[in-house]
Amino acid sequence: MQATKLKYNYDFNQKDQERVKRVGQKLSENAEAFVQAFYNYVSAMPEARRYLDKEEVIERHKAEIYQWYLSLFEGPYDNTYFARLHRIGETHVRIGLPTHYVNASVNFVQRYINEQIEHHFAGDAELVSLIAACGKVLDMNLDILTSAYHEGQMAPFERVSRYKIGLIRWAQKASDMTDLVLVIALMLVGPFVIGLFVYDVYLLVTGKVGMEEGILMVLGSLLILWALSELMEEEVRHLRGEGFAIAAFLSLAMAALIRKILVASLAEDKMYELLSYGALVLALGLVYWLIVKNDIRIGKRPNNRRSHE
Ligand code: HEM
After folding, report:
1. Are 294 and 178 found together in one domain?
2. What is the rounded distance in angstroms from the CA atom of residue 145 to the CA atom of residue 280?
3. Which atom of ligand 1 has the smallest separation from the CA of 38?
4. Chain segment 118-157, per-residue pLDDT in tens
5. Which of 62, 71, 82, 88 maximizes ligand 1 atoms within 8 Å of its Cβ, making it the mutation to test the pocket?
């Protein structure tokens, strides 16, 4: 949306601009205190802290918030200003930050600024107009900051026909059903893997296999059990709308191969078998490393589920 149209719709005129500048002359002096207050507020929301978990990210974000606060009063409220806000919104969408936290934190900023105006401009004849003018700037900010979220949700529905919307909804339902079947299948496989573990222990305890082979078999089935539980955790994350880390499947495949290597390593005539298993594990390990390093996930749905958290 064009800056002029936005300002027109919010009834933000030249007088408002001057009022916001006047407020800025006082409030910008204490921008560090604002950043501190903003972070105290965000830190009090444990779910929100998940998105600001690393020290370097927090420091970067603090500097961004500081600049944003100063430009709130400075403007100029032109296309460049609002394009920058839109980009911030896109970053928030990209990291999967639910729009709820942006709404809540802008509401906090509004209360903070109002308190500051009441403190610095107590008794001023323009007090109410100063608060109203800053309110308009913040509302325009919120409008643009969250527009990226709406675009993510609405765009496909705006462009396609009703028939296609119906198809998309059915496909979504089918995909949800498939997820459900996957979880149930994984839950069914669980007892079989536990059974394999118990069977291996039984073979070891009853002396049906040698001590060395028995221990390796038990360790191998434990490894598969661990990989299966990882896979289930990933599937649960996927159900919550996060991407599915295909690395979990690879770790299961590697666990199964390692179990085979452990058992085959005891036989003397299985040299070629061992070498081929080793090569396979190496190849899988390489792919696993690449996937984990780049945090490759499939089927991430930041815009439809997590944004409503
Ligand atoms: C008034 C509300 C907010 C404003 C004005 C704001 C501003 C910004 C800005 C300017 C950026 C950098 C965007 C870029 O250059 O691409 C950013 C990124 C980010 N924001 Fe916010 N933010 C707000 C609320 C929040 C909240 C509530 C959270 C978390 C709970 C959050 C988490 C993040 C994270 C994790 C990034 C990416 C940081 C990085 O890796 O550099 N933001 N935000």
Report:
1. yes
2. 48
3. 1
4. 999 998 999 999 999 999 999 999 999 998 887 655 444 4
5. 88
